[in-house]
Write a structure and sequence with these properties.
single chain, alpha/beta, two-stranded parallel ribbon, 15% strand
Length: 454
């Protein structure tokens, strides 16, 4: 079959059976191009026509074209569906905006038509609850347009903002966010530790239950302390960065350094060793996290966080030997395994084995002053009675990275290189032969839940 034929057949079916089309809530569009290749306009048009045939559509899954502030039929079609519940904006480069940026400074890089069109797309999304905004190749979405578009979504609860430069998203923009339940901030140069501390005090932040701070390079641990202190509804917290947030010079340190009474899940990944892991460990030991039940720390350099969790007999997985990191380590390369779950599990398991080979207690049985028997009790890694689970599994099954990221969402490599997908062989016995059953192979699609990002 030619590319896109099945979409056209689906479109015809939905147009002919409108009663059926009204029940369609989700559409999974097959990946028709390899990573890095632009999506053809005719493909967008076909997908748009399928969307227009589904009046009650809520989700378009696995198909996230780049929006370059130019009209396309798919974006317009989605903007007319009032029941859309989630949307992913990937803001790409626009030639006219790039040309203006060489002559003037922001704001004003987006012209009136570009700003008005982007805002207008949000007018009918009264039910939209999950929104992703990601800049690709220096895509521009000016702060005023960004904030206005968010405030046009009355049902918005889950928001992810990534890769915008300081002119589009900074501390001032952060203070203007609407009330949310889940927030992920990633790779934002304009967000500082001061802005995060101030944001935690705003009324909009009070209802946040899930917060992820990824690659924001927070300088001082006081910002993290303020966040956990003021976000009284926070239940899940994710912190990923290379540098270690330290105690500011001259600050008084009281235990616990950071604390949260209601937090039950924490992902803590500080790549460069520093005092951050030590401060977290001392805070847990001082009772700063009474409700914490799950701790994921891929960069637990010396195991002091693992020591505070419930002992485990085995951390490594049978599938680890098939990972890319395992092959890299067997070849003597360690640079690629510095921040992988394979490396984290291997080190955690080594600490378990070292503790197991150490005699922690000796039980001596005496009778009338004569030693009859001596039993050696082997050691263990962890704390007996701890209610915290040491968790080193990935958000995406089979991935070496702990945290789900945008490549996991938009990559279609598995769909264009199928190995175990449908080939049509199930009806190969048809009397007309191969012509009847043969079609383009499609692998099994593994859906990515957007809520895993928070």
């Amino acid at each position: 079959m030619k590319s896109g034929v099945r979409l056209k057949l689906l479109r015809r079916t939905l147009r002919e059976r409108r009663a059926l089309a009204q029940h369609v809530r989700e559409i999974k569009v097959p990946r028709l191009q390899a990573d890095g290749e632009p999506i053809e306009a005719k493909t967008l048009d076909v997908v748009a026509s399928v969307v227009m045939a589904c009046p009650n559509l809520e989700k378009l899954i696995g198909f996230y074209p780049v929006y370059g502030h130019e009209f396309d039929r798919l974006t317009y079609a989605l903007s007319t569906r009032p029941n859309v519940r989630e949307h992913v904006w990937i803001i790409g480069e626009n030639p006219s905006i790039t040309e203006r940026s060489l002559k003037q400074l922001p704001p004003g890089l987006m012209d009136y038509e570009q700003a008005g069109s982007f805002l207008h797309y949000h007018d009918r999304w009264r039910s939209l609850s999950t929104l992703f905004l990601c800049s690709q190749n220096h895509g521009v979405l000016e702060r005023d347009v960004l904030i206005q578009s968010l405030h046009r979504l009355p049902s918005l609860q889950h928001l992810c903002i990534s890769n915008f430069d300081v002119d589009d998203f900074d501390d001032v923009t952060l203070q203007s966010l609407p009330p949310l339940q889940s927030l992920r901030l990633q790779d934002l140069e304009g967000v500082t530790f001061w802005g995060l501390s101030e944001f935690s005090r705003t009324r909009s932040a009070k209802g946040i239950r899930q917060l992820a701070l990824v690659n924001l390079d927070i300088t001082y641990i006081s910002a993290i302390s303020n966040i956990l202190l003021h976000l009284t509804s926070l239940q899940r917290f994710t912190l990923v960065q290379e540098s270690s947030p330290e105690v500011a010079a001259g600050d008084l340190v009281f235990q616990p350094v950071i604390a949260s009474q209601q937090l039950h899940y924490m992902h803590w990944d500080i790549l460069v060793p520093g005092s951050a892991n030590k401060n977290l460990a001392s805070s847990i030991r001082a009772g700063g996290f009474p409700s914490l039940r799950t701790l994921r720390t891929p960069s637990d350099h010396d195991g002091q966080l693992q020591m505070l969790c419930r002992p485990r007999a085995q951390v490594v997985l049978p599938s680890d030997k098939y990972s890319k990191a395992y092959r890299a380590s067997s070849e003597g390369s360690t640079s690629d395994t510095a921040r992988t779950l394979f490396a984290a599990r291997r080190l955690a398991q080594q600490r378990i084995e070292d503790a197991r080979n150490t005699v922690k207690f000796k039980v001596v049985i005496e009778e009338e002053g004569v030693v009859q028997e001596v039993f050696d009790i082997q050691g263990f890694m962890g704390t007996i009675g701890s209610r915290i689970s040491y968790y080193l599994d990935s958000d995406v099954p089979g991935s070496d990275n702990a945290l789900i990221d945008f490549p996991d969402l938009i990559s279609g490599a598995k769909e264009v290189t199928p190995r175990d997908g449908c080939t049509g062989m199930w009806n190969a016995s048809h009397h007309t032969g191969k012509k009847w059953w043969n079609h383009t192979e499609r692998c099994r699609y593994h859906p990515v839940d957007l809520h895993r990002f928070f």
